[in-house]
Amino acid sequence: MASTPIQSEARTDLEPSFVIPLVLLFGAIPIFFLQMWVGLAIAVFGVFLMVQTAIIKLSFTTTALEVYRGSKLIRSFPYTEWQNWRIFWEPAPILFYFKEVKSIHFLPIIFDPGTLKACLERHCPLQSLRAE
């Protein structure tokens, strides 16, 4: 069941998606019996992503992608500085990449991937980025 993002005229807040953390946690179980330390490392990473999914929020505003920890704004990425973006592995999106003028960012998709892609296409279309 897909959830509806919280949206207003000026902002769209992405809903969390626990798919990747849960896949890692459940996938770590059989690996744990084959290679204990590898399975444990995957499980710890899954727990880490589970906590991040619960804590970190993404919001698309009219001018920037904003990252929140709880209700505190921790980073803003103005669209005017973006050069490119991509969502890796379309059948099951797992990684979101975007490049700014001065830095490159990779984020696991711990948010609703459909809303993420729709917001990216609306606020930061690739055609306009490549034209600049």
Topology overview:
Blueprint lengths: L5 E2 L3 E3 L5 H16 L1 H20 E6 L2 E6 L2 E7 L3 E7 L6 E6 L3 E5 L4 H11 L2 H6 L1
Antiparallel strand pairs: 1-2, 2-3, 3-4, 4-5, 6-7, 7-8
What can be said about this structure in brief?
This protein is 40% helix and 32% strand. The chain is of the alpha+beta class and 132 residues long.
Description:
- It is a single chain.
- With 132 residues, the protein is α+β, with helices and mostly antiparallel strands.
- Helices cover 40% and strands 32% of the residues.
- It has 4 helices and 8 strands.
- Helix 1 (19-34) runs antiparallel to helix 2.
From N to C, what is the helix and strand string?
Answer: EEHHEEEEEEHH
Helical amount among residues, as a percent range? 40-55%
Structural class: alpha+beta
Separation, N- and C-terminal Cα atoms: 39 Å
Strand content is 25-35%
Poorly predicted regions: none
Question: Which keywords apply here?
Answer:
132 residues; alpha+beta; five-stranded antiparallel β-sheet; 40% helix; 32% strand
